[in-house]
């Protein structure tokens, strides 16, 4: 998947060639469909399972194209004090889904047993919402990660996107993170067995390192981020974290583009 | 449909019809009854001819004014609504107490059978997350009330993107109950509902809000400003509702009200924890008039954000509830010793069983 949300769900140019827009016979036909491409977007969400739970993180930026427009946007949303959803892609669609989850949470609590939805149920629900919307040719332009615990109180992590595509792995990342964070997270948790050995400290370190690498190399990222640790004890959500120990000291050693000496 | 005749002033047709009707079994003067095919009853108030239940309050039962909803009696009452109140007066006692840092709701559930599971069959419901509702009277009407209240709260959220305030919910539910007094095709609600909530003291973000907005200046934040607070409303079958410091309805309402008045709730000195104890005690005291039947106490509370429920409507935790019930029983035993020394034999028997 391309890291640019604008390209999500579209045929890849390198495989299929550029889209021949001459078939559209000019832009004046039909209404402008603002829901068919994202406007204000969030970049990567990264998440990693460990021994006792899951860690999920996303930065606090909402970009307007290349403009870093909103810098205090919280893209991790908690659900029923047991799950966290991390949103990448369109922020207005994220707000819609947030309201949807809020009303689901309220109605769920009306039952005599109280909350019964776990992260696994929540992921199933959201993936069906996504698939229905894409089937109506009116997708919710997001790629989300659902982190929490499943019905057996085991760590649960899964992805769902604007096409209704779902998959699961011990570590997951959306957008640019799929290219940059995933290889780093897979080093510490190549498979489920390895993830089940990870301590919280090891997992936290790996996720924070991934966020730092993303800030170095993703032009739509920010050094302020939110991070949540979900265990049986509940959710520990921090929404105003700052990247630490960045390495820029080497930069002043670099001169020119080849032959320049000083 | 010759007998259906709408009054048309000065109409010859009408006068002719009246002539024809005059030798029928029923009177022309009563078009409403002729429409409904009822035997003749002339709904004219004749106080001297009608037996009265008490000399000061004229009783109009049996004069025809009480057969249909939305009909005014000659002195302007809607008897069907008053009959609905009688259904409330037979229901289990419900109370609400507004404390300085939250609200408590409690209900007496009379145990009609040993086959009923303890702790099941909840009577206090949550609306949105921060409001509780309980009612006395017809239980299914109470369920309908709660269902409507939840719809109202959800619709408020979808429009305003923020939780409904207790006051606004009470207003909407008052309007809803009042609408059921307006038509002969519907019946009034056989309940009096108590709605209690805690409106957040924070400036709430709208649902789905991202970012925090300007920190200063126009649209900015006012440092330390508190909003909201506890709210308690009681809505009657007529649709009438008021805000209360303490509210009681159902069979034991008189006793409960007397106890509530003693608490001086208007001074707002009562803490939520004490409110729970008082609520349990009042339900036990109110039940004392109805001693032959066992009951179960159900109790919920809503605190402020710093309190035990963090602004949510929740059941009172088991240990706190049991402590409050223990104190209530102790109070009653003390009461029995002092007041009713000679006729408290059955009460002691009850106490032995527990």
TrEMBL record, chain A:
Top-level taxonomic group: Eukaryota
BP GO terms, sorted: proteolysis involved in protein catabolic process
Primary localization class, coarse: cytoplasm
Entries under InterPro entries matching the protein: Ntn_hydrolases_N, Proteasome_beta4, Proteasome_bsu_CS, Proteasome_sua/b, Proteasome_suB-type
Record localization: Cytoplasm; Nucleus
Keywords, in A-Z order: Cytoplasm, Nucleus, Proteasome
GO CC field: cytoplasm; nucleus; proteasome core complex, beta-subunit complex
Pfam families: Proteasome
SUPFAM superfamilies in UniProt: N-terminal nucleophile aminohydrolases (Ntn hydrolases)
Similarity remark: Belongs to the peptidase T1B family.
Function: Non-catalytic component of the proteasome.
Name by which UniProt lists this protein: Proteasome subunit beta
Lineage summary: Eukaryota, Fungi, Dikarya, Ascomycota, Pezizomycotina
Gene expressing this chain: PRE4
UniProtKB/TrEMBL annotation, chain B:
PROSITE patterns, per database record: PROTEASOME_ALPHA_1, PROTEASOME_ALPHA_2
SMART domains registered for this protein in UniProt: Proteasome_A_N (SM00948)
Ranges for domain Proteasome alpha-type subunits: 65-87
Pfam families the record matches: Proteasome, Proteasome_A_N
A cellular component term, taken from the record's GO annotations: proteasome core complex, alpha-subunit complex
Protein family according to the UniProt entry: Belongs to the peptidase T1A family.
UniProt-recorded name of the protein: Putative proteasome subunit alpha type-7
Organism per entry: Lachnellula suecica
